[in-house]
Each structure stands twice: as C-alpha cells, then as structure tokens.
Design a protein that fits this description.
The protein is mainly α. It has 15 helices and no strands. The protein folds into 2 domains: about 160 residues, Tetracycline Repressor, domain 2, CATH 1.10.357.140; about 130 residues.
C-alpha cells in the first residue's frame, strides 16, 4: 500500500521564519474570512432559534467569540500546513508561504485569539458554551489538521465535525445545555461537509496529489468519490428538513430546505454521470449556497413565527 502520509512541516517557511513585515490584511487572511463567514452565520442561526432569550449585547459577544475562535483555528491550521500550502496552487498565495507572515507570528496570533475567545465566552455568556467553543477549536487543530488530514481519506468525514459545532454553540449560549434540536443542526453541517469538500477535491485533485494529502479522489478514485457524494446528499436531504419536526422554522423552512436538499441530490447525480470537472465545480458552488440557504430559511422562518405570535 502506498504511504500517503506527508512529513511534518519544516520549522520555518518564508524569508526567515523569525520576523514579519505583515500588514493587517495579511493577518485577516490568516483567519480564513470566507470560511469564517459561514461559521458565524450558522452560529448565529443556532442562537436565534434556541428557546429562551439572550441580551442583544451578550448575543453579539457570543457571535464574535465564535468568529474569533474559528479564525484563530484557521490561523493555526495555516501555520501547521505551511509546507503543503506552499505546493498547492489553491493555497500557495497565503501569507505564510509567500513569506509575508512569519510562521511563529501566525502560531502566536492563533493561540492568543483562541484562548481569548474562549475566556470571553465563558466570562460574558456561560462556561458551557465556552467549553464547546474550546472543543470545536481543539478538534479542528489537533484532530483534523494534525492527525487526520495527512493520514486518511476520511479526514473530511471525521474532521468535518469541527465545522459543525457553531450552531450548537449558539444554542448553548442561550440555553446553557445541549438539546436534541441542536444536535440535528450539528448533523446537518456534519453530513454536508464531505460532499462539499469532495466536490472541491475532484477538480483540485492534482493539488492534493502533489501535496500528498490523501483526499478521497486521490486514494479511492473519482468513481468511488462520486458515489460517496451521492450517498451523503441522499442522507442529508431528509436530515435538513428534520428541524421542522422539532418545531423550528415553520413551513417556510420546511419548503426551502426540501427544495435545496433535493437540488443538492440533483447536483450529486450530475457529478456521478458527468465526465468532466464542470459538474463538480457547480456542485461545490451550490453547496455553499445550500448551507447558507438552509440556515437563512431557519432564521427567517423562526423570526416570522415569533412576529406572528407577537401580533396575535
């Protein structure tokens, strides 16, 4: 069996690894702002739909802590993955491989922000939400980035749990505990993550091969990856409608999630039947819209129901 494990990253990548001439923009890029935006949005959704109430200022603090912790984990991920980032076309222009941010500076930046976000969440909101936030960040850094990513094609399947925590964290920020509806919100993102990233890896397969990262298309081939993508979207379709069964979102959410989930399956079928990369690119783009749309419908549906109750 071919060994797909990549060696641990070198101690420094960049000009000298000791100093940095970075701009503010470079440090913002370390936070992976595009990834952070979805994390923040789903965390906000969990906060909105949770039973009970939270002072608007504390709610803003909770969302900010989720954003900062997610960005900090992204910065630590960039520090650890700087060697493979340097050889992948998709990531080679990141601040560390380009030498604009020293590796040590990126690590310190990520650690300080992580600790700060968890402490503020605990002191301002509640320690249950803070513990869950710490778990999510640690899972992304230690389980996904340092353990799974370079060792197994199931890296995204298991490691995807890190990105599924935000709505649960938002929920716990309001309620102080984990309830079954919060677990369902977690599972929606958990099941969405593999087809989302496998679609990306289908048209970026060469990048992952060059870096030695054992993504599913590299290890199992494109045909098996496409079958797995269809399986996950089929399982996700009823799951994304499940919040309605727990009284969340109302009919607006049920209708939107049913349509989006069905179209996600259609995208996976087109990828399965297609021979080129175009279908995979379209599915990847739609997967982002899918997640945004599902949680936006959840927020709109829940706020609409609250408005009706207030007027009646």
């Amino acid at each position: 069996m071919t060994d797909t494990t990549v060696q641990s990253p070198p101690q420094a990548v960049g000009r000298d690894g000791l100093r940095s001439d970075a701009t503010v923009r470079d440090f913002v890029l370390l936070l992976k702002p595009r990834v952070m935006s979805l994390v923040v949005f789903t965390g906000f959704a969990g906060l909105v739909v949770a039973p009970g109430s939270l002072h608007p200022l504390l709610a803003a603090v909770a969302v900010l802590c989720i954003a900062v912790a997610a960005g900090a984990a992204g910065a630590i991920n960039m520090w650890y993955d700087r060697d493979i980032d340097a050889v992948m076309a998709r990531t080679c222009r990141r601040p560390i491989p380009q030498g604009r941010v020293a590796a040590g500076d990126a690590l310190a930046f990520g650690v300080v922000l992580s600790v700060g976000a968890v402490m503020v969440m605990g002191l301002a909101v509640n320690w249950a939400a803070a513990a869950l936030l710490a778990l999510a960040a640690a899972f992304y850094v230690f389980v996904y980035t340092m353990w799974l990513k370079r060792r197994t094609p199931h890296n995204i399947v298991i490691g995807g749990a890190a990105g599924a925590f935000p709505p649960m964290i938002g929920w716990v920020a309001v309620t102080g505990g984990i309830d079954l509806p919060a677990v369902v919100l977690f599972l929606i993102i958990f099941m969405w993550t593999p087809p989302h990233f496998w679609a990306l890896s289908l048209f970026r397969r060469g990048d992952y091969e060059k870096a030695g990262v054992p993504m599913m298309p590299v290890v199992a081939g494109t045909a098996e990856t496409k079958r797995q993508m269809l399986l996950y979207t089929l399982l996700l379709w009823p799951l994304c409608m499940a919040p309605y069964a727990f009284g969340l979102g109302g009919p607006v959410y049920l209708a939107v999630s049913a349509v989006l989930g069905g179209w996600f399956v259609v995208c996976a079928l087109r990828v399965l039947r297609g021979q080129g990369e175009a279908a995979a690119r379209r599915m990847f783009r739609f997967s982002i819209l899918f997640l945004f749309g599902v949680f936006a419908a959840l927020i709109v549906g829940e706020l609409g129901r609250a408005l009706v109750r207030a007027l009646v």
